[in-house]
Design a protein that fits this description.
Helices cover about 25% and strands about 15% of the residues. The chain has about 160 residues and is α/β, with parallel strands linked by helices. It has a six-stranded mixed beta sheet, covered by helices on one side. It is globular, with a radius of gyration of 15 Å.
Length: about 160
């Protein structure tokens, strides 16, 4: 399990307060580094964000800074039970996103509409979410999609 100590949390809180919610790319990277979410980085390009296993539960608000990281190729949100359809809207502009893991989240059919423009998406894990056949139709336009995990859904 990844842990945030009180010093890290205080720094995170102060830095977010100082910028008043108006983050840029550098501040977004610092935010995700402080939470130990960035797991893949090459030449200052963030490739992988892993939100799983954090002691401090990730919420939809934690995803809003992803817009400053358009180069992200993989996002892991396994067991992030506070992630809902609302959070997926922050991922809709990630043109290079290839892998998205959403098992055991609160995702439903309504959230899948935010994914339909992810033209590079190759692997999507929806294990144990509340998606149905109707929602899966939103993904039909993603020609790059090669793996779709639906075990434990209503499909």
């Amino acid at each position: 399990m990844k842990k945030l100590n009180i010093f890290t949390f205080t720094l995170l809180f102060i830095s977010c307060s100082l910028i008043g919610g108006n983050m840029n790319r550098d501040e977004s990277i610092k935010y995700y580094h402080l939470k130990s979410i960035i797991t893949g980085e090459t030449n200052n390009k963030i490739r992988t964000l892993d939100f799983t296993g954090l002691d401090d539960p990730i919420t939809n608000d934690d995803l809003k800074y992803i817009i400053f990281l358009p180069e992200v190729e993989a996002i892991h949100l396994s067991d992030c039970k506070k992630i809902t359809d609302e959070g997926l809207k922050y991922l809709s502009g990630l043109e290079k996103l290839e892998i998205l893991n959403l098992p055991n989240t609160k995702i439903t059919d309504a959230g899948l509409k935010h994914l339909k423009n992810l033209k590079s998406l190759r692997d999507l894990d929806l294990y144990n979410t509340n998606v149905t056949d109707k929602g899966i139709q939103e993904l039909a336009s993603i020609e790059s999609l090669r793996m779709l995990l639906l075990h434990g859904t209503k499909v």
